[in-house]
Amino acid sequence: DADTDRIRAALAGAGADVDLLALGPQDTRATLAERLGVARPTALVSLLGLAETTHRDHDVLPRAVSDTVLLVQALTDAAVRARLWTLTRGGVAATGTDSVDSTKSAQLWGLARVFGLEHPESWGGLLDLPAELDERTAALLLAALSTPDGEDQLALRPAGLLARRLVRAPASESAGSAPQFRDTALITGGTGGLGGHVARRLAHAGVRHLVLVSRRGPDAEGADRLREELVALGARVTIAACDVADRAALATLLEQLRTAGPPIRTVVHTAGSGRSARLLDTDAAEIAAVLAPKAAGARNLHELLGDLDAFVLFSSGAGVWGSGGQGAYAAANADLDALAEHRRGRGLAATSVAWGAWAGEGMATGAAEERLHRQGLRFMDPQVAIGALDQALEHDEGTLVVADIDWPTFAARYTSARDRPLIGEIPEARPVRAPEPAEQTPDLVARLATLSGDERRRALLGAVAAQAAVVLGHPDAAAVPVDRSFRDLGFDSLTAVKLRNRLAAATGLSLPAGLVFDHPNPAALATYLGSRLAFDENPVRSALFEDLARLESTVAALSCDTLPAVVPDVRERAALTTRLRALLTGWDQARGGDQSASREQVDDVSDDDLFDFIDAKFGRS
To answer: Residue 494 pLDDT > 50, yes or no?
Structure first.
């Protein structure tokens, strides 16, 4: 289309070698990974975000979202490390005159921010296009795409490039007016913890009729107790079972409520569900299941009810700054913020609050609660949160964040892998760089150089375990089993990059961003580092040690019980053992001979050779 042609022409005009990879309905994760593996791109610009259609099996899921997830998964499977820029149109309201006509692009912004956290080494950024691309805006597009490690959330408008920032909401000059709640108020997720707090507030405000909607309705735990409490406050209470993502079911309920009266004047949408899963482990059905109650439910309420005194959406900070393992949830919450902007652009009431963590009966429990604490998100007293909601409605806020954040802790974790300009204008969030590791490069390398081979390997393994312990917050290296996979030890993309940075500082080596994921456990990683730190000026011997290290790392990966799909079966293990022993025999026979021959023997151990040997010995299974 015209956008694709103009962007290709602009990139080519700037000297780029541009290939077009079209994603078709027949493409799967495997086929796309294969195509990317052949293309081996050095940079990627995705136009998938410009699609306005939905997934063929899930009406609630935009193809912009599902196809981007497919691309992210395929890039990882193909081991392509190129930076990915994702383009959208109408995904953000970047100026006071912007209109948000579709929330599909906004969902992609929420999800892509999570990709940037889970895969910082592959993150380029997000760029929202203007309605029309001309030569000037195309030049600005090139400027944005060519800036390394700079602004990563941009909107391109006729006035120029605009960068996204999280800023404190200024105190309003006017006192505002207390919200007037009257007639009927409908609360989705009304029998849950958040819905219950809102219902009590509205009952105190004098709402005549409270309608609490949830999937289980009267059968929800604590529903009868909540009803009694609200009735005691003077409200008439209806508790209804309805899936608000089901437009027909919701329309039927609303018609029943209209007949019974009084009219619905207020909607508070707290319903939603969150599922923790990395983008690599997420499929279309799981994303749709998270989008349905929040995004589809909010859309149905908007379209079926129209203008109201108050239309309040309970969003989440995950949709504003992202949250690892929360890609679908972030997309759903970004959708709510965009819907509020869309309504306000049409002159309708709307307020979307991106909440932090609520104490007590909030959404976060167990492991999620602990994770939020580690991220620097403190739990708010529900009464304080409700007071903040009152303020937002008094001052007719559109979209805002209400959260209690330990900024130094949050910023240190949020920016551990790379700079995050989003929070750059909050003074307390300016990251304080951690001091360099106690053991600097000269000390570690010099100490290793004085040791024998076995002693050096043990010392390097201890250094890797010690650095891993620091990153994970353990008291010492003893808490890090060296044969256990990094994932089982608790590493995610952020802590993996942090360990890479510490090891790079300790060794003086330039190490790849995917270091921890390329080597399955501390023992394999120490072997790799040992090859890179070879204390041998002979280039042939150094290269030989590097080859051996790669071979050892491959064997360790094949033996890793966290990757059952690649663990060899009995026959394959026998064949591999025979091959390796043959290699060692050849080495023994060549001892004292030409070193280049030894190098050739090591280079000769390829995947094709191994499987040819298996075929010859045992035949294909």
So the answer is: yes
The answer, yes or no, to whether residue 255 has pLDDT greater than 50, is yes
How far is the C-alpha of 306 from the C-alpha of 215, rounded, in Å? 23
At position 580, the amino acid (one-letter code) is L
Neighbour count for residue 240 (Cβ, 10 Å):
16
For residue 382, give Cα distances in angstroms to 19, 153, 247.
53, 32, 31
d(CA 545, CA 470): 29
Contact 126, 88 (CB under 8 A): yes
pLDDT, tens digit, 9 for 90 and up, residues 295-320? 999 999 999 999 999 999 999 999 99
Place of tokens 């759903």: 332
Are both 2-163 and 184-272+283-427 of the same fold?
A: yes
Q: Does domain 2-163 have CATH number 3.40.50.11460?
A: yes
Specify the amino acid at residue 569: D
- Which residues, including other chains, have CB under 8 Å from residue 556's CB and lie 6 or more apart? 519, 520, 521, 523, 524, 527
Please give the Cα distance from 25 to 29 (Å, whole number): 11
Write phi, then psi, for 55 (nearest 5 degrees). Answer: -60, 140
Q: Is the domain covering 184-272+283-427 a CATH 3.40.50.720 domain? A: yes
Is the pTM for the entire model greater than 0.70? yes
pLDDT in the model for residue 560: 46
493-507 and 453-472 helices cross at what angle (nearest 10)?
140
Place of tokens 């130094």: 408
Beta carbons within 10 angstroms of residue 254's beta carbon: 18
Buried b (16+ CB within 10 A) or exposed e, 93-132: bbeeebebebbbbbbbbbbbbbbbbbbbbbbbbbbbbbee
Instruction: Give the model's confidence band at 527: pLDDT under 50 very low, under 70 low, under 90 confident, else very high.
Output: confident
Residue by residue, DSSP assigns 267-282 as EEE-------B-GGG-
Of 43, 53, 36, the closest CA to residue 15 belongs to: 43
185, 266 Cβ separation under 8 angstroms: yes
What residue spans define the domains of the chain?
2-163, 184-272+283-427, 441-567
Which architecture characterizes domain 441-567 according to CATH? Orthogonal Bundle (1.10)
591 φψ region: left (φ > 0), alpha (ψ -120 to 50), beta (else)? beta
